[in-house]
Specification:
Length: 267
């Protein structure tokens, strides 16, 4: 004997559940990072998540590698009902963006949202930046952004009006010249997509999260930022994630071609 509940009857009328859209998020290497925060938020909103990370970058930075981070992030996303796929990817290699899209499509299908959180960020100024460092910043922050967007545009096959491109940027240049300059290039490349990919019904925006301490801030920088912020606190990965979540939603479709400040009013 089969007992049909009200829930069963609603499910029969409505048919099978809709497939979750897929977001590809770059630069998700640490559980405390902005990329991981965005991945968790989108997973909770019904997205499947493919993400990239590059451990050798963390090895070179003051915070170091976080062992098991990609596995922990994957488990957290799965708890939100998301299918996940992690790829270790060196975005300084110009062949990497196409390879990433190949692997994601083979494992998970068409990418609907491309969210770019990857970066190269080494503190140096006008007088002490090396040519090698300058070139690497532009390879990762600018060239890889272009190549990722190019692959996305060439392969986009989701419904018109659902496509989303979001890049994370920064306006910090003093004492951080190659990072800020290459992020400025990222802005221009990403915003161009709002017009050049208009025929696909794709929106493209850039988000500046302002100062978010994910383990890189010295105490004096932290104190200065808190004093300077009208709300008296630092930004969090969750603050950025909520904005990205909205931009990726149906309700966020009319916001397009914008550089959005999400910094609590910090001048």
């Amino acid at each position: 004997m089969t007992i049909r509940t009200d829930h069963d009857e609603r499910a029969r009328r409505q048919g099978p559940p809709a497939a979750r859209p897929l977001a590809l998020i770059t630069g998700v290497g640490r559980t405390v990072g902005i990329g991981a925060g965005i991945a968790r938020r989108l997973a909770a909103s019904g997205w499947d998540i493919a993400f990239t990370y590059w451990s050798p970058y963390d090895d070179r930075m003051s915070w170091g590698r976080e062992p098991g981070a990609s596995e922990a992030i994957g488990r957290a996303l799965a708890e939100q009902g998301a299918a996940t796929f992690a790829i270790e990817a060196d975005l300084a290699d110009p062949d990497t963006p196409a390879r990433v899209f190949d692997e994601v499509e083979q494992r998970m299908g068409t990418v609907t949202a491309l969210v770019m959180c990857h970066c190269e960020s080494v503190d140096s100024g006008l007088l002490d930046t090396t040519v090698e460092s300058f070139d690497r910043h532009f390879a990762v922050n600018a060239r890889a952004t272009w190549l990722l967007i190019r692959e996305y545009g060439r392969r986009f096959a989701a419904d018109r009006g659902t496509g989303r491109i979001i890049g994370l940027t920064s306006d910090h240049t003093v004492g951080n010249l190659p990072y800020g300059a290459s992020k400025g290039a990222l802005d221009r490349i990403t915003l161009a997509a709002a017009h050049e990919l208009a025929h696909l019904g794709v929106t493209a925006n850039v988000v500046n999260p302002g100062p978010v301490d994910t383990g890189w801030m010295p105490e004096e920088v932290r104190e200065h930022c808190v004093r300077s912020a009208p709300l008296g606190r630092l930004g969090t990965p969750q603050d950025t994630a909520h904005l990205v979540d909205f931009l990726c939603s149906r309700e966020g479709e009319w916001i397009n071609g914008q550089l959005l400040m999400s910094n609590g009013g910090l001048a």
